[in-house]
Amino acid sequence: MAYREFIISKLSPLVESLLQTRTSISILEVGPGPKSTIGRLPGHLRRRVSRYAGFKPNKLFAWPLRNSLLPASEGGEQQLPCLESEADIRRVRFPVEDEMTFNGGPRMFDLILFCHSMYGMADKQDIIKHALGLLREESGEEMVVVFHRDGNLSLDGLACRQMVVFPMGIVHVRDDDEVLDAFADFVAGSSVHDTVVAKELRESYRKTCRALGGRSKEEPGHLSFSSPQIMVTFEKKSHEPLCVDSASPIG
């Protein structure tokens, strides 16, 4: 529901607005899952993406992500069918110290997306500032877009162009030890190693999840957690105090 009713429904108009001033767009996605969020957009928007890059250090997700963006097999649908070159998937953490290049020149983007990928990142405001430096300056409408859990995002010194809240977000998690272990690691933003202390911590996490999770007839065998979300957008001048008269501060 969160993707259908919030993430895609809010991201699509942003892409539409960019396409009013250009024929195609270049996109950088930081921390996508095994499939790109961009690949969930309506077909007429996906066909206008000419360049795509992604940062995904987790090799378990990096290869499925790359494969999902390759030309589709016969009868299938390619997620981004009009790419000018193969999707550039980098198995390193964002940001990187060296300058990103494309065909020998600096690679700049029209849209940079963080979709639930900033958990566990320190100095989030510096990461956003770095991303802002990778935006093209063609029309001033180029943007960094962040989807995050509401109340869990501190970006001191930055002012957003737009913020939208989705209070109805709900996460359903199967009531299974292994699934709850993975869910707890995701919420905590880190994982624990196989030690005696780790075993005790996992048991504590499971007990906490089962105590706090709701249960409903609609999702038998699952725990339900309220997960309100926000979308925040930033433009090139978001970290310049003299240029944020109409923006809402975050942090």
Number of DSSP strands?
A: 13
The poorly predicted ranges are 241-251
CATH architecture of the largest domain: 3-Layer(aba) Sandwich
Provide the gyration radius in Å.
19 Å
Number of helices: 6
Structural class: alpha/beta
What is the mean predicted local confidence, pLDDT? Answer: 83
Question: In one word, what is the shape?
Answer: globular
Helix content: 25-40%
- The portion of residues forming beta strands comes to 15-25%
Q: Tell me, what is the CATH class of the largest domain?
A: Alpha Beta
Taken together, the total number of domains comes to 2
Task: Tell me about this structure.
By secondary structure, the protein is an alpha/beta fold. Strands 3-2-1-6-7-12-9 form a seven-stranded mixed sheet, with helices on both faces. A two-stranded antiparallel sheet has the order 4-5. A two-stranded antiparallel sheet has the order 8-13. 27% of the residues lie in helices and 24% in strands. Helix 5 crosses helix 6 (196-212). Strand 4 and strand 5 form a beta hairpin. It has helices at residues 2-18, 43-46, 59-68, 124-132, 177-188, 196-212, and strands at residues 25-30, 49-55, 88-90, 101-102, 105-106, 111-115, 143-149, 158-160, 162-166, 170-174, 222-226, 229-235, 248-250. It folds into two domains: 2-167 and 229-250, Rossmann fold (3-Layer(aba) Sandwich); 170-225, no CATH class.
Summary tags:
251 residues, alpha/beta, Rossmann fold, seven-stranded mixed sheet, two-stranded antiparallel ribbon, 6 helices, disordered C terminus
